[in-house]
Recover the amino acids of this structure.
């Protein structure tokens, strides 16, 4: 076995500017991608590696999950191997959703919600008393303890404190037999006259019973309580000792009558209506329109005091205007000219709040405002605020400036409703627990003492909460609380929270891709980050980081330097390797800076302030602590401090908004809380420069953004040729019609959308990528066209326009900021953040400075290389030299060392920050030894870069004085790093307890093939799927985006203490094939998706009627066509106005409308038209003499007559454009003076002669028979009609499933359906024969590669005989398995844990070797393969075996042995080992039953699916086995033909019977039984006792006991499904299911019945000392002893014992049985019946899920059934079953079209002699010695694993 792949190999990466990059990266290392901004780092790391890794994993998920996630776009790369499932940790974005908090982001709050819903103690939100629901038994028990011996009155409170007379109710109660009621505290007889005051409140309580609380009356007392609860809807009053005791069966406060909703997690969510505070809708704050925001107190209303009115005089977005306001002023005598502040308060209140509740709606606000005027004139005015509140529902953003935010008065900012807040857990409500810091929360959960119930239910919840809290605390954010809004987190805090969640997942084998994780991190935090990255790596993951931070680069195991420069000249690997390799590489710019060959020079002197400054006083926003700080003006000022210290709160939250409000009076920004800001008068402009793109579309570019393109276009418009042609400036814009190419609309390229593949861009065929039309490109300035100018770099353009000062100054500025390499026309969307930032700075630098501008930059070094930072600093210094102030929030030491003044905040983050630590030049910080100052010490000395290591020994994180000997240090460090590569660790499972697993601990080796085996029901699936797979996929899914997880749902977590070393998991469940008639081989393998894409993008459309190719013409293309075909000829260009049978709407609906449009046509300058092919002049048209217009008269308008030549091309193109316009997209070409046939050209692809127009561009959905767009309407895309039995093919589409127009689209002469009719081999040859144009090849390349790859894999797994359109429902189990396995190998993923459930099911022994080879290939890629398997060949091929047992059910669930095959075989205590060694085996029958002539079932002419007119006979009274390779036709013969036919004839079922001629001999049968492995019941209420019907005689027996007769109990009383006898608390379940949503559900024993399922009265009846509950808890073996004297019961129980189910309990829930156990239970039920010997048993692969030992038991049962005279027909591949048969029917010789023939019929011994039979070949060895392949013994250490 080769070792797992330890490299990621990338070949031909060409995303964005990457130049066909080939790269090899080491796996399980920390690799850093670095290089200048825009060089292609993110294109390589994210757009190539991450995208491809995630795409492959998503493709491996279920089809259901993928339909929501969509198909991820494939990147532009030839080949990537060694990829693992990929997770992106994008560090740039903080969630700005006001509903998002630290608790929701980390999902801790989700676990809190689950905790409170399951373990919270509800209290009444009104009175605060605890609330709990009680059963009748609990109420009775309480009363007996509290009032034993007292006389008790049982009352049903029917009416409580309600007004009314209640005559009818009293009469009804009396009629029902009730005698007394307590009315308003007095007992009254119901037959006496009762009169109640109608308008007073009354309480009426029915007297149910009156009795003494003693032991004899307990049953009567409980029944009375039940009755009262039923009548009073869950309430009962017990009066004893003269006091009332109110009890509730519901979750309600009996005193306040407040009912609590169901305790579900959503009750505690402020994002759900069930939990959110109704006032603030769960936000905790209210935004309200206020007078201060709406009104200018200095102005009158006539001068615009109300700010919500527009310049036109209407309220924003409404039709409420000055007319309404004038009516208001008149009606209420308001002086509109008085300033707002001088108006009386009542008037101001009236204007804003109104005087009446006027209904507002879309009609009277937005449409018909007159309705509202009438209301105002009648004195009803709703108020400005009411109107704005209505409008706000439709237009939130623009109205927010008139609102102020305040804490919600009802929930006081707690966001939840009173009911949710009244639920407590250990005296804490969910809000108070969320308000605690993470450190305090850890202490709370560590210190609480849990009850046994809390421990059991909350085990998983507490583990998850504690783990997440600890991980967050470990990355240094323990000071945060869960209620902290995510929007207020600093970048550093948000990053560390995301990284902590990835660390918490504990995955291995994952490829993590991180985008600049050091953004927003102070140097002191950087080491924590690097440690976190190393932890991820050390767990066996590959960590790829795009980074420029020096420390991170130096900590990397491997570095990739991308360059050499940015943009089009970048995209290459300039250096890669260790730090030493990078430093040594002279071509590496990164190496230059790391080695000190290039440096950012310190300033020679620092500027000093002139005295002008800004002073922020008393800032208290977020965590700022009454901060006062001075910011000197005219300097380069930096704000520094640890993450979360308050930098952004001070600058963005307070200062920026305050300056904006000062400079822009209309600004709606609300600065954070502060006292004052002084010095604002010194500023006249505020400019914020960030890295957002300079444009959102490819049409924006550096030339347009810097306004340089305007003077360039002016220049071209002044050229003499332009003036002569009348071209204006607009002609030279590619954004407007006229000068641009019409076909590509000035883009120069056509983008072909490839949906789930990368979009393909091909040059426009008309302008050949030059963006402008031919006429525009004939204008030259200094020998260059406008397109040539856009293709110039800034350097080239600066030289070209040196004599044009207006243009040259802009170009020179761009050059100075280092943008000389950028092309003028480069799309802005392709610029990096750093490039966009420098272009913005250049735009600022070229402006004339006033010296009073404040420039704000928040972490401008994001994404910038050392080289880019040097350029940035030059720009910023130039701005300062002009007298401006530059204020930067930054952690980068190169920026901080260049600052004139630094303001450091801190000292810590969160509550530990918000204070001024130091303010002054960098040297002052160093002197004061502040945290930032310590890191600045080295850079200020001017030393070359070294690693800044921080001592972990002190809390102050002092800087270590490391050696500067870079050579020696680097070498030592590199060698150490090279040895740090981690190769992963084994999977360690501790405490697995799913289903019957008994707290299992085990290790599974990584990257090996492990087989989990054991008897049926021992716990294999519980371990492999319910524990390993569920946890592995759950952890990976949790790491995906929130959007993806919404659709995937949250996977249940397994009940297990811990699993370490888990990899992302993929399950290949082999049992189910798709029964959907729409599913085919092509759709299952996704080949059809790629074919649909191909046919939509490069398919040639044809007219479905005539077969003519459909072509669409643009004016330019039509002109080229005319030049080519009619050059030198005189041509008439006509626009059809009416065309008989056109199938298209033209100018005229019918010919006789022509006269009505003649005048307007003449007015437009048209002179002639052809009417019925005769030329007429429009100005000579007269009704009498004009041609008669009939229904079929054609009318064509003459647009132009022109002699076609190159010189007339412009006129020709304009004429064609006019013709298309007048002809509604149609153009008619006619040779002038000739009667030859005219030719039509159409803008849309069309066949004008037949009237077929392809109005919509082809899309992949049009070729889908599962979409209404493409499916044939007659058969709904199925290709057949069910009612056409003899010939089901749809007559409309002839089985091709699509509409005719899409069947007429072809590639190389075949449509998509015809292509899919080919088999895999033929499809490969067809693709190889395609001849495509270069453009077609560019478009099709990716899709063709995907199709070819999939076809190759299908050939490799032996499925080349399948046709692509074969229905998935007709595939055999073996075929379906191999298709799924092929797709997994095709994904090429590495580091995955594949979990397979019995992959050998449905596989012939001939195919098992091929399967094992496939599994080994998966393993050899570097994956862990885990199989649940019983096939001995597969077990022998495993690297590691885990044997689970020793028995089934509660006797199983333990690891009996683990090790390699030789070790297992040597252990005597394991059943599997004894079979492997050959000590145990299934013997060959000594003699076989003989077939009797004439006693047989005969099938003639079977031709279902691939059966080839098969005639076959099955002797009756024998054990028949049908065998053959996968896909040979076994199920088609036995299930589709024989079983369905017999079900129809014998059982009168409606069945779809497979094709055959006749079946004879079935009249000899009396019964048909199909035995499968389906569960015996879907609910826990079904069990072996109920299924085998043994429960009926047992219940009969109990009802005849003396105690039962005395109490009047019937048989029904002893059913746990009947209300009378079962426990009312758990409804006969014996336990309560606590649903834990995304955690594993918990089963808790019922407190009332203690798991007995029945109530006390029922359990009082016993048989031989056993209650009915005791009987259900008995094992079948023990039950045989108990009921030895009951023959009716004993017969059934003995049969169960004999088939090996003696260990099973009679009451074991049916849904916990394994498939093998369910099968044996069904067979036992048959054996226990009195046999007549005429039953036919059909079994389809009954050995599925069975251990060899289970197979031996199964064969014994089958032999017994046949011995009774019955017949068995079994479909099977298992050689143990085949060799035990009396008669074999072998089909083949191959699968699919190569099968379907009868090869042999007879005994196993005779089958061996048939050469064509694969079965015979494998059977020979088994029959020879009765066992299989004994293993050579080896010496191993003794002892169990």
């Amino acid at each position: 076995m080769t070792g797992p792949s330890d490299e990621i190999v990338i070949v031909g990466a060409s995303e964005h500017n990457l130049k066909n990059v080939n790269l090899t990266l080491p796996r399980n290392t920390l690799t850093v991608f670095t290089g200048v901004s825009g060089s292609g780092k993110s294109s390589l790391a994210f757009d190539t590696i991450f995208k491809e890794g995630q795409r492959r994993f998503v493709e491996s998920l279920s089809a259901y999950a993928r339909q929501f996630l969509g198909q991820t776009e494939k990147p532009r790369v030839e080949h990537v191997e060694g990829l693992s499932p990929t997770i992106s940790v994008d560090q740039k974005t903080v969630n700005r959703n006001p509903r998002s908090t630290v608790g929701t982001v980390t999902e801790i709050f989700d676990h809190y919600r689950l905790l409170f819903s399951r373990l919270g103690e509800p209290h009444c939100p009104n009175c605060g008393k605890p609330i709990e629901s009680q059963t009748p038994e609990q109420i009775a028990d309480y009363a007996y303890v509290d009032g034993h011996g007292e006389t008790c009155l049982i009352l049903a409170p029917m009416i409580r404190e309600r007004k009314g007379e209640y005559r009818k109710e009293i009469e009804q109660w009396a009629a029902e037999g009730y005698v007394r009621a307590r009315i308003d505290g007095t007992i009254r007889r119901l037959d006496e006259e009762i009169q109640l005051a109608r308008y007073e409140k009354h309480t009426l309580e029915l007297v149910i019973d009156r009795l003494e609380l003693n032991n004899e009356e307990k049953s009567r007392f409980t029944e009375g309580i039940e009755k009262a609860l039923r009548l009073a809807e869950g309430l009962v009053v017990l009066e004893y000792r003269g006091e009332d005791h109110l009890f509730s069966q519901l979750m309600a406060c009996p005193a306040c009558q407040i009912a609590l909703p169901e305790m579900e997690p959503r009750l505690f969510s402020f994002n759900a209506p069930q939990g959110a505070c109704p006032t603030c809708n769960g936000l905790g704050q209210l935004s309200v329109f206020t007078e201060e925001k709406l009104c200018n107190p200095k102005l009158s209303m006539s001068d615009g005091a109300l700010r919500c009115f527009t310049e036109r005089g209407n309220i924003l977005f409404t039709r409420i205007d000055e007319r309404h306001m004038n009516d208001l002023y008149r009606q209420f005598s308001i002086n509109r000219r008085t300033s707002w502040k001088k108006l009386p308060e009542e008037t101001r209140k009236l204007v804003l709040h109104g005087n009446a509740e006027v209904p507002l709606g879309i009609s009277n606000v937005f449409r018909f405002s007159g309705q509202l005027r009438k209301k105002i004139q009648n004195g009803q005015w709703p108020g400005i605020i009411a109107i704005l509140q209505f409008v706000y529902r439709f237009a939130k953003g623009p109205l927010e400036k008139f609102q102020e935010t305040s804490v919600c008065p009802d929930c006081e900012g707690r966001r939840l409703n009173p009911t949710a807040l009244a639920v407590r857990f250990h005296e804490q409500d969910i809000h108070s627990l969320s308000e605690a810091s993470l450190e305090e929360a850890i202490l709370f959960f560590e210190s609480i003492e849990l009850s046994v119930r809390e421990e059991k239910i909350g085990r998983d919840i507490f583990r998850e909460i504690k783990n997440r809290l600890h991980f967050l605390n470990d990355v240094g954010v323990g000071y945060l609380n869960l209620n902290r809004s995510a929007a207020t987190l600093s970048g550093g805090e948000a990053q560390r929270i995301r990284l902590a969640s990835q660390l918490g997942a504990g995955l291995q084998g994952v490829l993590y891709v991180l985008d600049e994780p050091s953004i927003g991190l102070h140097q002191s935090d950087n080491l924590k980050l690097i440690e976190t990255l190393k932890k991820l790596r050390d767990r066996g993951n590959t960590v790829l980081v795009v980074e420029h931070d020096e420390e991170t680069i130096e900590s990397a195991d491997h570095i990739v330097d991308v360059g050499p420069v940015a943009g089009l000249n970048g995209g290459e690997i300039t250096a890669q390797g260790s730090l030493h390799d990078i430093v040594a590489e002279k071509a590496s710019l990164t190496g230059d800076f790391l080695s000190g060959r290039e440096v950012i020079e310190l300033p020679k002197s620092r500027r000093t302030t002139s005295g002008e400054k800004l002073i922020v006083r008393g800032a208290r926003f977020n965590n700022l602590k009454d901060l006062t700080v001075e910011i000197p003006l005219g300097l380069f000022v930096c704000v520094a401090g640890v993450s979360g210290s308050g930098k952004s709160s001070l600058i963005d939250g307070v200062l920026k908004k305050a300056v904006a409000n000062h400079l822009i009076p209309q600004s709606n920004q609300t600065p954070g809380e502060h006292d004052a800001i002084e010095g604002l008068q010194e500023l006249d402009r505020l400019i914020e420069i960030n890295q957002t793109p300079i444009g959102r579309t490819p049409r924006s570019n550096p030339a347009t953004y810097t306004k340089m393109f305007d003077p360039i276009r002016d220049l071209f418009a002044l050229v003499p040729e332009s003036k002569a042609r009348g071209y204006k400036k607009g002609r030279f814009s590619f954004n407007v019609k006229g000068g641009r190419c019409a076909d590509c609309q000035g883009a120069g390229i056509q983008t072909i959308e490839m949906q789930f593949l990368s979009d393909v861009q091909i040059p426009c065929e008309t302008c050949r990528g030059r963006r402008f039309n031919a006429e525009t490109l004939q204008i030259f300035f200094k020998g260059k066209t406008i397109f040539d100018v856009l293709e110039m770099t800034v350097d080239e353009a600066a030289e070209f326009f040196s004599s044009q000062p207006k243009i040259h100054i802009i170009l020179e500025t761009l050059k100075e900021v280092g943008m000389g390499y950028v092309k003028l026309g480069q799309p802005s969307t392709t610029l990096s953040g750093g490039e966009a930032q420098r272009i913005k700075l250049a735009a600022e630098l070229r402006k004339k400075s006033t010296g009073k501008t404040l420039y704000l930059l928040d972490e401008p070094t994001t994404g910038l290389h050392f080289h880019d930072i040097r350029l940035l600093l030059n720009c910023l210094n130039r701005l300062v030299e002009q007298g401006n102030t530059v204020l930067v929030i930054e952690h980068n030491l190169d920026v901080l060392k260049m600052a004139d003044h630094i303001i450091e905040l801190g000292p810590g983050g969160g509550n530990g920050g918000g204070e001024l630590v130091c303010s002054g030049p960098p040297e002052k910080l160093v002197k004061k030894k502040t945290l930032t100052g310590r890191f600045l010490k080295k850079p200020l000395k001017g030393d070359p870069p070294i690693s800044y290591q921080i001592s972990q020994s002190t809390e102050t994180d002092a800087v270590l004085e490391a050696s500067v000997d870079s050579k020696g240090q680097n070498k030592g460090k590199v060698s150490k790093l090279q040895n740090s590569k981690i190769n992963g660790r084994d999977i360690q499972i501790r405490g697995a307890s799913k289903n019957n697993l008994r707290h299992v601990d085990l290790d599974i080796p990584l990257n090996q093939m492990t087989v989990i085996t054991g008897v049926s029901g021992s716990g294999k699936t519980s371990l492999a799927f319910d524990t390993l797979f569920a946890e592995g996929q759950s952890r990976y899914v949790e790491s995906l985006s929130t959007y993806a997880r919404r659709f995937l749902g949250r996977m249940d977590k397994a009940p297990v203490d811990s699993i370490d070393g888990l990899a992302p998991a993929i399950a290949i469940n082999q049992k189910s094939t798709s029964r959907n008639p729409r599913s085919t081989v092509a759709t299952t393998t996704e080949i059809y998706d790629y074919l649909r894409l191909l046919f939509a993008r490069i398919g040639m459309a044809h007219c479905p009627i005539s077969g003519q190719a459909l072509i669409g013409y643009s004016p330019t293309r039509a002109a080229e066509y005319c030049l080519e075909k009619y050059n030198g000829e005189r041509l008439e260009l006509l626009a059809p106005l009416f065309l008989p049978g056109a199938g298209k709407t033209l100018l005229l609906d019918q010919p006789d409308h022509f006269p009505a449009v003649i005048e307007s046509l003449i007015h437009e300058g048209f002179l002639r038209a052809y009417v019925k092919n005769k030329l007429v002049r429009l100005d000579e048209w007269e009704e009498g003499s004009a041609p008669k217009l009939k229904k079929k008269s054609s009318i064509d308008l003459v647009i132009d007559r022109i002699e076609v030549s190159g010189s007339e091309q412009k006129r020709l193109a304009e004429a064609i454009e006019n013709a298309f316009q007048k002809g509604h997209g149609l153009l008619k070409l006619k040779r002038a003076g000739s009667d030859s046939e005219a030719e039509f050209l159409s803008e849309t692809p069309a066949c004008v002669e037949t009237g077929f127009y392809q109005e919509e561009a082809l899309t992949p959905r049009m070729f889908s028979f599962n979409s209404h767009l493409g499916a044939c309407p007659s058969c709904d895309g199925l290709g057949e009609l069910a009612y056409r039995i003899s010939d089901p093919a749809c007559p409309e589409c002839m089985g091709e499933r699509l509409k005719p127009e899409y069947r007429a689209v072809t590639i190389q002469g075949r449509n998509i359906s015809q292509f899919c009719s080919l088999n895999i081999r033929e499809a490969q040859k067809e693709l190889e024969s395609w001849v495509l144009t270069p453009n077609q090849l560019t478009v099709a390349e990716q899709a063709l590669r995907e199709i070819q790859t999939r076809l190759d894999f299908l050939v490799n797994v032996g499925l080349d005989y399948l046709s692509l359109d074969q229905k998935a429902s007709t595939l055999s189990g073996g075929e379906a398995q191999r298709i799924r396995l092929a797709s997994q190998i095709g994904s090429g993923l590495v580091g995955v844990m594949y979990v397979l459930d019995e992959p050998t099911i449905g596989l012939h022994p001939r195919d098992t070797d091929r399967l094992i080879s496939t599994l080994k290939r998966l393993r050899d890629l570097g994956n862990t393969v885990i199989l649940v398997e019983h096939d001995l060949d597969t077990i022998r091929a495993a690297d590691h075996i885990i044997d689970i047992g020793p028995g089934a059910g509660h006797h199983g669930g333990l690891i009996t042995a683990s090790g390699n095959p030789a070790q297992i075989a040597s252990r005597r205590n394991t059943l599997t080992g004894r079979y492997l060694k050959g000590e145990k085996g299934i013997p060959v029958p000594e003699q076989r039953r003989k077939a009797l002539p004439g006693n047989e079932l005969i099938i003639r002419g079977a031709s279902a699916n691939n059966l080839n007119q098969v005639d076959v006979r099955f002797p009756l009274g024998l054990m028949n086995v049908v065998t053959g390779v996968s896909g040979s036709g076994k199920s088609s013969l036995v299930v589709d033909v024989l079983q369905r036919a017999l079900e129809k004839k014998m059982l009168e079922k409606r069945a779809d019977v497979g094709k055959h001629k006749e079946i004879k001999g079935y009249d000899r049968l009396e019964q048909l039984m199909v035995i499968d492995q389906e569960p015996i019941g879907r609910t826990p209420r079904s069990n072996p006792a109920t299924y085998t019907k043994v429960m009926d005689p047992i219940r009969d027996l109990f009802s005849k006991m003396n105690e039962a007769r005395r109490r009047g109990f019937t048989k029904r009383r002893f059913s746990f499904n009947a209300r009378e006898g079962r426990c009312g608390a758990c409804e006969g379940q014996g336990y309560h299911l606590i649903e834990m949503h995304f955690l594993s559900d918990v089963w808790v024993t019922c407190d009332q019945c203690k798991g007995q399922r029945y109530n006390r009265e029922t359990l009082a009846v016993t048989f031989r000392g056993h209650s009915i509950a005791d009987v259900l808890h008995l094992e079948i073996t023990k039950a045989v002893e108990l009921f030895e004297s009951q023959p009716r019961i004993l017969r059934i129980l003995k049969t169960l014992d004999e088939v090996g189910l003696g260990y099973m309990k009679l009451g074991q829930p049916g849904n916990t049985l394994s498939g093998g156990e369910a099968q044996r239970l069904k067979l036992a039920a048959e054996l226990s019946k009195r046999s007549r010997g005429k039953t036919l048993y059909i079994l389809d692969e009954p050995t599925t899920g069975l251990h060899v030992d289970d197979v031996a038991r199964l064969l014994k049962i089958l032999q017994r059934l046949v011995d009774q005279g019955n017949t068995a027909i079994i479909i099977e591949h298992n050689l143990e079953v085949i060799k035990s048969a009396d008669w074999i029917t072998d089909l083949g010789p191959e699968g699919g079209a190569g099968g379907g023939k009868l090869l042999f019929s007879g005994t196993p011994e005779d089958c061996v002699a048939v050469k064509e039979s694969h079965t015979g070949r494998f059977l020979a060895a088994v029959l020879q010695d009765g066992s299989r392949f004994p293993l050579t013994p080896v010496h191993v250490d003794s002892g169990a694993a």
